[in-house]
Amino acid sequence: MTVFKDRIIRAAKLDINLYEEVEADRGALGQAMGVVVLSSIAAGVGSITRVGFSGIFIGTITALIGWYVWAYLTYFIGTKFLPEPQTEADIGELLRTIGFSSSPGLLRVFGIIPGLGAIVFFAASIWMLVAMVIAVRQALDYKSTLRAVGVCAIGWIVQMLILAILFSILGGSAKPV
Question: How do the domains of the chain map onto residue ranges?
Answer without folding.
Answer: 2-170
